[in-house]
Design a protein that fits this description.
single chain; 203 residues; Hypothetical protein af1432; two-stranded antiparallel ribbon; globular
Length: 203
C-alpha cells in the first residue's frame, strides 16, 4: 500500500464541508473514512463531464472509469483499483491538467492523493506503485480512444500528442448520467462480491 502523504498548507481552512448526494456532511481536508460512500461516488462521477465539459456530448467520469476498468484489466483487484482511480473527484472535483500540474497546485495534489488512498483503503484496494503507474498509463491511453470517438471530441486538434494506433482501438458512445451511475454501481458491487473474480467487458 502506498504511504499516506502529509498535508501542508496551514493557510487553508479545514472546517469547511460539502453535503454529499446521500446527505452526508463531508470534510474534504479532514475526511472521515466512514463517510466515504460508494453511492455518493457513483452519483457524483456520473454527473461530472470529462474534458472540463469540452465534448460534443456529455461523457461522464463514471463511464470513463468503467471502460478503463473493463477494457484494460482482467484481475478483480486491478479492475476495482481502476474503477476507483478517480473517485476522489466525487469530493474534490477535478482541475484541468495545465493547471493541476503547476507548482501552485501542489496542495491540491496532496489532498487528492491522500483522499484517493483513503478511498482505496475504505474499499479494500491494495496496489503498489508499479500497479498505480500502470493504471495511470492506461488512463492516458484512454484519451486516445476518447478523442478519437466522434461522439465525444471531433475534430481532434492537430496538436494532440496521440499514442500510436492500438490494435484494441475502440470507439465510445456516451451513456446518460443515470445509466452511467447504475453501471458504475453494479460494476463495483460485482467486483466487491466475495466470489467475484472479474466482470465481463462492456460494449
Amino acid at each position: 500500500m502506498l504511504s499516506m502523504p502529509p498535508l501542508t498548507g496551514k493557510r487553508f481552512k479545514t472546517t469547511d464541508w460539502i453535503q454529499t448526494f446521500t446527505g452526508k456532511k463531508f470534510f474534504p481536508l479532514t475526511p472521515d473514512p466512514e463517510l466515504i460512500c460508494i453511492e455518493d461516488i457513483a452519483h457524483s462521477l456520473s454527473m461530472q463531464c470529462r474534458y472540463n465539459g469540452h465534448s460534443k456530448q456529455f461523457y461522464s467520469v463514471a463511464q470513463h472509469r468503467v471502460i478503463l476498468s473493463q477494457k484494460f484489466f482482467s484481475s478483480r483487484d486491478m479492475q476495482l483499483a481502476a474503477l476507483l482511480h478517480d473517485a476522489s473527484e466525487a469530493y474534490l472535483s477535478d482541475i484541468p491538467r495545465p493547471l493541476k500540474n503547476l507548482p501552485q497546485f501542489a496542495f491540491y495534489r496532496q489532498v487528492e492523493d491522500r483522499l484517493s488512498q483513503l478511498i482505496y483503503s475504505r474499499f479494500g484496494v491494495k496496489i503498489d506503485r508499479d500497479e498505480q503507474a500502470l493504471i495511470k498509463a492506461y488512463d492516458n491511453e484512454m484519451i486516445y480512444h476518447e478523442v478519437s470517438s466522434e461522439n465525444i471530441m471531433s475534430p481532434v486538434h492537430t496538436d494532440w500528442q496521440m499514442p500510436p494506433n492500438s490494435l484494441r482501438k475502440f470507439y465510445i458512445d456516451p451513456w446518460n448520467p443515470q445509466g452511467a451511475e447504475v453501471i458504475f454501481l453494479s460494476t463495483f458491487k460485482w467486483l466487491t462480491r466475495a466470489d467475484a473474480e472479474s466482470v465481463k467487458e462492456v460494449a
